Amino acid sequence: MALALALLAAVAWTPTGAAREKTPKLDPTAGHRLRGGAPLFDTDDDPSTIDPGRGEIGPTAPAPATALAVPEIPKVLHVVWKTEKLPKFADKYVKSWIDNHPGWEVRRWTDESMAEFVKEHFPRDVAMFRSFPTGVFRADTFRYMLMSVIGGVYADLDMESLRPIDPLLVGQRCLVGQEPSAHAALIVSVPRHACNAWLASAPGVPFWDEVLSEVRRRSRGVMSRWNPPSVTGPEMLGAVMDRTGHGDGGCGLVDPPEALYPAVDKSAFNSMRERCEGVAPPAGGCPTPEYVLRGVAPAGPHAAVAGVAMRGEAPVEISLGEPVGEAPTMAWVCCRLAREGFVNPDREEMVRRGSFALHHWVHTWLDGPDARVTNVWRRRNILDDDKW
Fold this sequence. Notes:
- The chain has about 400 residues and is α/β, with parallel strands linked by helices.
- It has helices spanning about 15-20, 90-100, 110-120, 125-130, 135-150, 165-170, 180-185, 205-220, 230, 235-245, 270-275, 330-340, 345-355, 375-385, and strands at about 50, 55-60, 75-80, 105-110, 150-155, 160, 175-180, 195-200, 250-255, 290, 315, 320, 355-360.
- Helix 2 links the parallel strand 3 (about 75-80) and strand 4.
């Protein structure tokens, strides 16, 4: 968490703040824009939208006349990082989003432009925003604000795009992903565990008002560098989703979790192996899933791709909204982990199974010991500095 999709280091950024020096009011639709994946930026102050066919900027279209119309999720990727200097690991993951989403608009936000945005659109939250003990609280909260005001898609910096997400967004107004089934069953012991590393929404969805209200409530309690998950992160988000549901007033889940999060956090494999000792496999076994989105790829998501053979043993339909069926049991999860040898499948295998994205669980929000790498290694090779 607390990482955001970043643009390629080769792209020359124009600070958002600098583009606003002559205009005290921030236009929420303006900002850094990347058209068609090319390194081109536009700082128009006029409200604008994206032409889905060309990926270019045009006048804001009026709302549909029918009250039954579902608001569209804008084809905008939000880029959030504290400064314009980006972590070393980000380039290849960012390139994957750019390559898979030509014509999408990419907007960059730094600490400076985030503060300006909050002051303009959430003035009563300025004091709270400044009071957060670390940047991860601000990064979490800001992504919800973006979803509320502008909409679009947010993805953490350590999240890789495996294929275009456009089919997931058709006819949807709000979507949240879930951490892998193994995390839910073996780490937090719940059926499903919402994750805020990937968010998609149309602007103005009431769900984000509920989320921000919960952030305000929890921020009045104890905050430390160790508890952002429960104050502004996944635990908080999941609590709101439990309360609002996934229909009107709520936000839909992408299910199964592995459609967006096919990889388990490597640091958890040892403890998962211990928890799975003695757990009998389910009666029907645990066949390798193949994730299928109805109406988009009825014969498998890559069946028409030359040279790509599906390896799934059991089709699993991706649902958007209210999850269909029961969550995977601990027995099924342990069976799958054992079949994989308590390691993650390689990237190509995840693509063959139909996953849309891959979260790499870099954990830059942690400033203490990490089970996978030491602080010294992380600071030298990932963060480029000693604090986020």
